[in-house]
Amino acid sequence: MLDTIIKQPEFDVLIVGGGATGLGAAVDAASRGYRTLLLESIDFAKGTSSRSTKLVHGGVRYLAQGNLSLVFEALRERGLLQKNAPHLCAVLPLVVPSYHWYDQPFYGAGLLLYSILAGRLGFGFSRLISRKEMLRLTPTINGNGLNGGVVYFDGQFDDARLSVSLLRTAVDHGACTMNYARVTKLRHENGRVTGAEFIDGESGTVHHVSAKVVINATGVFVDELRRADDPSVKPIVAPSQGVHIVLGREFLPGDHAIMIPKTDDGRVLFAVPWHDRVVVGTTDTPVSAADTEPRALAGEVEFLLSHASRYLNKPVTAADVRSIFAGLRPLVKVGDGANTKSLSRDHTILISKSGLVTVTGGKWTTYRHMAADVVNRAAATGGLPLQPSATKHLPLHGATTAQQQDPWRVYGSDAGAVQMLCAERPEWNRPMHAQLPYLLGETIWAVRYEMARTIEDVLARRTRALLLDARASIEVAPLIGAVMAEELGWSDAARTAQIDAYVTLARGYML
Question: What's the half-sphere exposure (Cβ side, CA atoms, 13 Å) at 143?
Fold first, then answer.
């Protein structure tokens, strides 16, 4: 991809940032016919976009806040995503337990409205259920004082795998994409942004590219690029940290997730079955600065363990946690931005005097709408020929239907090719690790076809080994390093450095 960029360093649209919004914008711009380049400083979806609650949802909390327009938009986008990427987005039934006499009518009415707002793109109508039905659907829920509950429907997805699908969709439509390409400065001519300088993280070489318009889609880091454009700007992002713990499937063996509408800190708490594990989260903690590798605070860990123990019928201890991960939400400041859980998840687009187009805020579910919105604004700013967005009904790479229990489902229509690659060599057709649901050959696929460049890329985002079992991922890191070294021609020193870096990172995902 770098060779292509060097040969033709002039683009219509340059997108800085390879998370959900940046990748979505690359798909949108490329599918309109614009010459598109996306540069990501580390790896695609390295930040917030691989650290979600794994739900594609309208936002029950925003319904409670009375933000019907945001809920309506998110529910519509949820339905479109399920149609455009059925291999990665599936319908998930959730239950809301009732421990007080007023819970069922109150939440029942709200969730019925939630179902109605989805319209033709809805996943099903909510319904009230008895205590007996509640215990049948979620046998491990705490039955003390349980009166019954409400069942409703939302979507579930694999966030990092959807990012890979967006990446490949953008490339399918002619976009150039590059990870480990850190933008070090913006280029200006006559007061206008006309491109950028970036460093190839592998070779250390500096390159320059020109573009008619530059989109800043760097998530929680948008203020850094805004300051590179204009040092006088005031920050607009109030980062909020969300933490999740991953437990074994025995804590929630059914196919229904649990949603607790209001925790002690006023947030919604979920326990979600995902890849034969259970994801429990999330917290909401304001942080003063963004970090590429945020870590859970002791108070957040205690909050999740205590709340999980409160609503499940057996205590959850630190020893039960397979992995713990933290992500930062790019919430747009309102006032002093102190109470992040009250901030809206609407997206914001700003255009600087020099023409830098910044997009931030929003959430995974509405990535497509955000992308279409920002490309519309960018096209107008850059004087590009106006073309309508084509992504509303655009199938993403790999789109195909498959059984939800199919372990190859996340590859969609590429599943057969992945299996054939794994079968080329006996060692590739063997499990990576007894505790992980992956074959070693998936590493080769990730390197050859999904732009994986590091052990972390493979174990954290091309597969989800780091989140499913951090300890097992550490144990398999030397084997992954050996396979990648052969494929990429790493020296022994480079391989050792890769393994050491991964082990250091993965230890932060263990309690």
Answer: 11
Contact 304, 447 (CB under 8 A): no
The terminus-to-terminus CA distance of the chain in angstroms comes to 39
Alpha carbon separation from 82 to 58, 155, 395 (Å, rounded):
13, 8, 10
- Crossing angle (nearest 10°) for helices 20-31 and 367-382: 60
CA atoms of 432 and 94, how far apart (whole Å): 32
CA-closest candidate to residue 398, choices 52, 74, 163: 163
Has residue 227 got a pLDDT over 50? Answer: yes
Work out whether the CA dihedral 339, 342, 346, 350 comes out positive or negative: negative
Beta strands 323-332 and 237-248: pairing type? antiparallel
The token duo for 59 is 């936002």
- Alpha-carbon distance of 209 to 196, in angstroms, equals 6
Residue 342: the pLDDT is 42
Work out the angle between the directed axes of helices 159-172 and 20-31 (0-180°, nearest 10): 20
Question: Taking the model in full, what pTM does it have?
Answer: 0.95
**How do residues 375-426 score in pLDDT, each as one tens digit?**
999 999 999 999 999 999 999 999 997 666 678 999 999 999 999 999 999 9
pLDDT, residue 133, reads 97
Q: In angstroms, rounded to a whole number, what is the distance separating the alpha carbons of residues 48 and 330? A: 8
